[in-house]
Amino acid sequence: MPKKMGVNSKAEAARERRSVAEADRRDRVERAKEEEYWREAEGPKSRAARRREEDAEKRAEAAARKAENRRLAEAEAASASASAPSKTAARKASRVGAPAPKVTEAELARRREDERLRLEREPEAAKKRAARTAEEEEYERVVLVANTNRDDSIIEARSVDEAIARMSLVDSEGALPADKHPERRLKASFKAFEEAELPKLKEEKPGLTLNQYKDMIWKLWKKSPDNPLNQAAE
Question: Max CA-CA distance within the chain?
Fold first, then answer.
């Protein structure tokens, strides 16, 4: 018994194209005969009329050929894609069946060491975060919250001029010694203190306004040993 062979899709498509072409040729011959018959029956036509008819026939034939070629191309593409799933399935099967890469002992040791270092660093990082948070809160408190705990041994004032006015109200029995020009000495001392402290504060606590810096300087000045009022109170 002869062995059954599979159908060659390309050969089959070629035979189909030849069959279609032959049928098309016979159809054209028949149409030509029919048109010749009607031309003889209708009598002579003008040259323009004949050209219009010929152009219409050519366009119809071109459209028919284009449609047929498209149909044959689609049939061939469908035949070719029928065998594609088997190759795709084979590739997927090969990927699924491939063994997973083995992790070496050195890689496991490295991972364990990384995890150990991470666990060791966590408490230290938490301490640093807590310290930084506390420092920021203190910074905020110093800048934005008014200090209500006044030192009774210091003359309270909001500016140098007010401090000078307060000094003039202290009687002769007070703690302040007599000074012919206290305002000059006080203003000069504060000016020198401000010029020395302002760059330090700008470096330590950047981003504040000038008024905030001056407010901090004034609070430092009220407790500074360079303040003549504090020297007089000692």
Answer: 149
